[in-house]
Amino acid sequence: LEHAAVKLAAKGCDWIVANDVSAAGGAMGGAHNRVWLLRKEGSESEEWPKMTKEEVARRLAREIAAFLTGPEHREAAE
User: With a threshold of 0.85, does the pTM exceed it?
Assistant: First the structure.
């Protein structure tokens, strides 16, 4: 997670998703993944439960949609 936090700051992103690439995590070549969502706002990382990669993608899409339809983004678009 420390590497992901450094990468988040270096790239100037709003978010970064870190995944467990260890053999025990099963991300590489497996159907499941365990990820953490880190936000630049300084909040703690959000650990997601182990789920299929498709479930990770769907949850991330929902998070992005909620972020982009939040009040700060609606005001900027007006």
Answer: no
